[in-house]
Design a protein that fits this description.
Layout: H1 2-20, E1 38-45, E2 48-49, E3 53-56, E4 61-68, E5 75-77, E6 80-84, E7 90-94, E8 99-105, E9 117-122
Parallel strand pairs: 1-4, 3-9
Antiparallel strand pairs: 1-2, 4-7, 5-6, 5-8, 8-9
Keywords: Signal
Pfam family, one: Cupredoxin_1
Protein name: Cytochrome C oxidase subunit II
């Protein structure tokens, strides 16, 4: 029994020492594979987004991501092919037309659902 304990301790020490010398794992690229895309993080709490408006540049890739900080929400952006929810938290699109687009919660989330809106401004 003592030999087994000593052997397991030795294996653990070897593993720990090899992990210390391991190279740092590179940061993961966004799910879209385009790290150069503009990033728009939509943080949702009960009945509001973290910003009243989000601005992006027209004609460039934009990666939208959704973080549900409070409650369960999903996002639709009028006129833009973006639908985010707990299963699809990021999406990259290119918006070629300048303008103002409505961002809404697309999951009935409670009493304040109807007022859970924001704006995307494409310049």
């Amino acid at each position: 029994m003592k030999k087994w304990i000593v052997s397991m301790a030795a294996v653990g020490m070897i593993f720990a020492l090899s992990a210390c010398g391991a190279k740092e794992t590179p940061k993961a690229e966004p799910a879209n594979g385009n790290p150069a895309a503009q990033q728009v993080k939509l943080v949702a709490t009960n009945f509001q987004f973290d910003q009243k408006e989000y601005k992006v540049k027209k004609g460039e890739d934009v990666t939208f991501s959704l973080e549900n900080k409070q409650g369960l929400h999903a996002v639709q952006i009028s006129g833009v092919n973006v639908g985010l929810d707990n299963n699809n938290k990021t999406k990259t699109v290119k918006i070629d037309k300048a303008g103002t687009y409505d961002i809404v919660c697309s999951v009935p989330c409670g009493q304040g659902h109807a007022t859970m809106k924001s704006t995307l401004i494409v310049e």
